[in-house]
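In the previous lecture we treated proteins in isolation. Real proteins rarely work alone, and many bind small molecules. This record shows how such a complex is specified: first the sequence, then the SMILES for pyridoxal-5'-phosphate.
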Amino acid sequence: MPTVLPEIDTPAAVVDLVRVRANLDRVAAYCREHGLAWRPHAKTHKTPELGAMQMEAGAVGLTVATLREAEVMAPVTRDILLAYPPVGAHKTRRLARLLESGARVSVGLDSEEALRCVAAAATAAGTRPRVLVEVDVGMRRVGLARVEQVLALARRVEDEPAVDLLGIMFYPGHLRDLTGAADPALLQLADCVGELVTALDGAGLPPLVVSGGSTPTLWHSHRVAGLTEIRPGTNLFNDRTSVAVGASEWDECAYTVLATVVSTAVPGQAVIDAGSKALSREEVRGSLDGFGALLDAPEVVVRGLSEEHGILDLTGSGLRPRVGDRVRVVPNHVCVSVNLHERLHVLDGDRPVATWAVAARGR
Ligand SMILES: Cc1ncc(COP(=O)(O)O)c(C=O)c1O
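The predicted 3D structure, ligand included, written as tokens:
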């Protein structure tokens, strides 16, 4: 096996810029074709350079999950959706500072308590953030599930002088393996969104923005009538899960963990220096096992993990790596792996061209 990227110490997060650009162009073209606004989720990369690339490729703004991400992305775009309810005095103060800095922030929330925090931050900053009422379309995580609850909170937002009602948002995280246009879960999602939009229209609260979208549902977004905006995150890099659910191809995986083989003492396996602290211990929901697979030999799966050890299962492959060889691992869930690394090593083709800090890591 050739030695891969000898200039980079391992374990290391490596980004393939050629594939990133292709992934950006693909989603930008899809959104243009279907008249959808594209607001990618920065939680996947947490890196301002990549946020800037998304904006240059045609994103209308960025989505963030944490105030840290919002603070780090604010210089990249003024237009930020905090897709996470800010609750408590600390978050209120931090949101106020973000608003004072000139960021044009919208916030997704599902409670009067979170609305009060946003209103307090707005009053302190002297600006008017916009609010999206978060609805639950089946994931059962956050969001209001009943139409009358959505209408009631939308009315509260409309009556709140410190903020503007922008519309609704949802995250269809429960939808993974969509089979096609006629998938019952997709039809159900479209019905649910249609019912909400009709109810809001009828109540005199027509949503300007209906924000949804994830990587597994990405290429089906145009089938959800009423949707105006999508927020894919993972799709920037893709991962073993996005391939498993049919949302990307293997050669669209743009992020890998570079690792060195440190032991082949046990027959049938090779041990690499990327364990749970480099790959994360996320499982692929569904049929696949293991914690990642080799980019150049996907049949070789990371079967086991310790903190600093990854066990490659060689039993289904002719690959026989030697101690000192280097491999690139596609993780199961890229967002969690990125968050474990301080920096991304950026390749243009096979050439390292930059090192970018994962600046929005942490809280
Ligand atoms: C609220 C919200 N929006 C968008 C996304 C992006 O989803 P994906 O990573 O599947 O593209 C996430 C991911 O967790 C999310 O929580």
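Summary for your notes: The first strand starts at residue 12 and ends at 16. The mean pLDDT is 96.
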